[in-house]
# Entry
Amino acid sequence: MSDQTVSQDVVVSLLYRLTLDDGSLVEESTADDPLVYLHGHDNIIPGLENALNGMVVGEQKQVSVEAVDAYGEYEPDEVDEVPVSELPDGLEPEVGMVLAVHDEDGEEDVAQITGIEDDVIILDFNHPLAGQRLHFDVTIAELREATAEELEHGHVHDDDYEDDEDYEDED
Ligand code: ZN
# Structure
């Protein structure tokens, strides 16, 4: 018995099925492997997080999220051409391959190869779901209070969590 609802600082176990406008399945999380996250700390896309507010365990809902509240609009400027000669030795580029790319400041970004033309590859830095309206079929599987440490870190510590590097020195 519980009157707990999805709200700020609650740990949510979520079952979901994510599809696109054309009905294609992107991913799903089932009872064997629910998505567990700390609510109210930007751990999931804002459009979904907002829609889950106030739900109770066992409740099911269909949520559609516009691109702007999901992974953003598709930005044509976020596409670069890179000479094949600048790729790391031994890398055989293929369309669909995802690369970790470091910019001048050493920041890592992820890009997908969307084309190969003669001696250049086309690298798309947009999120693969950018520009897409997302449809979630969600069920709340479980709710619990967060621990003080989880609240401090802003994310969940479940049985098999590996903490981020920022907190390494706390072990
Ligand atoms: Zn942590």
Residues 167-171 have pLDDT under 50 and may be disordered. The radius of gyration is 19 Å.
